[in-house]
């Protein structure tokens, strides 16, 4: 096992499940000290338990916070620095899918809710972590975009709009901060079998969501869902020093889904 994160501090939002949890496990196995943030405190405890089961000596800070509250974001960034003295890497991951409907029927409040979490939350995280990294003169950030941020996806206008915004923030901030030793990139996952994707399938067909999933993966060149740990491997690489020259870009991890259209 490599130790790319020995002595390094990794901050992860949305760490209570799915991609955040898988990424936390992976970087912890490679030596990282973790600052884990989620709105759900019990989910955070579950992630910590899994980390400590795999790496009993791991250092793990848990912070319950809402990424749509800028003061809360500033606070968890400061708590991380106060505890570990720095932030080497940041997986800016917290997000929600929102409801599915045609754009003309998409609720304005629902649209705003999705944008608040997926775009404003990412912006707040970038803003306050970049203050730390700019002062340090180093750092790596991975923002969670989506296949829905590089092409359209039907019935999810709020989600697609917010993730396109994440792509724009990533490219813009990468251009701004590369000169300061900070690399910023985004990942664009396709259908990864997480609680979020399961919830999306249940919106399509509450009674037979697993069958809906089987039909959905038939449109993917690899004919399957991705696994959270597969995204965790990619996130760990992108947060590591090995990926420092990858900047201001978006990397799909979707089995080829985004290139079919």
From TrEMBL:
GO terms for molecular function: oxidoreductase activity. One of its GO terms (biological process) is bile acid metabolic process. The keyword Endoplasmic reticulum does not apply. InterPro entries: KR_dom (IPR057326), NAD(P)-bd_dom_sf (IPR036291), SDR_fam (IPR002347). Residues 8-190 form the Ketoreductase domain. It comes from the Bacteria. Gene3D superfamilies: NAD(P)-binding Rossmann-like Domain. Keywords: NAD, Oxidoreductase. Pfam families: adh_short_C2 (PF13561). Belongs to the short-chain dehydrogenases/reductases (SDR) family. This is Oxidoreductase. It comes from Priestia koreensis.
């Amino acid at each position: 096992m490599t130790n790319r994160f020995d002595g390094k501090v990794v901050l992860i939002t949305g760490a209570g499940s799915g991609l955040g949890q898988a990424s936390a496990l992976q970087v912890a196995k490679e030596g990282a000290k973790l600052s884990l943030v989620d709105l759900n405190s019990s989910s955070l405890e579950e992630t910590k338990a899994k980390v400590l089961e795999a790496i009993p000596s791991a250092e793990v800070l848990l912070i319950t916070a809402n990424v749509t509250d800028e003061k809360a974001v500033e606070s968890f960034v400061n708590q991380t620095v106060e505890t570990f003295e720095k932030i080497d890497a940041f997986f800016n991951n917290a997000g929600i899918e929102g409801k599915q409907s045609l754009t003309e029927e998409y609720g304005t409040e629902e649209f705003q809710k999705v944008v608040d979490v997926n775009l404003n939350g990412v912006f707040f995280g970038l803003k306050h972590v970049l203050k730390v990294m700019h002062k340090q003169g180093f750092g790596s950030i991975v923002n969670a975009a989506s296949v829905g941020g590089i092409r359209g996806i039907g019935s999810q206008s709020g989600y697609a709009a917010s993730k396109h915004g994440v792509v724009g923030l990533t490219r813009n901030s990468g251009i701004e901060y590369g000169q300061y030793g900070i690399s910023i990139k985004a990942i664009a996952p396709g259908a990864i079998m997480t609680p979020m994707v399961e919830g999306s399938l249940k919106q399509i067909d509450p009674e037979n969501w697993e069958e809906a999933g089987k039909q959905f993966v038939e449109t993917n060149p690899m004919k399957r869902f991705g696994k959270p740990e597969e995204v965790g491997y990619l996130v760990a690489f992108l947060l590591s020093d090995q990926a420092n020259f990858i900047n201001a870009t978006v990397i799909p991890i979707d089995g080829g889904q985004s290139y079919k259209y």
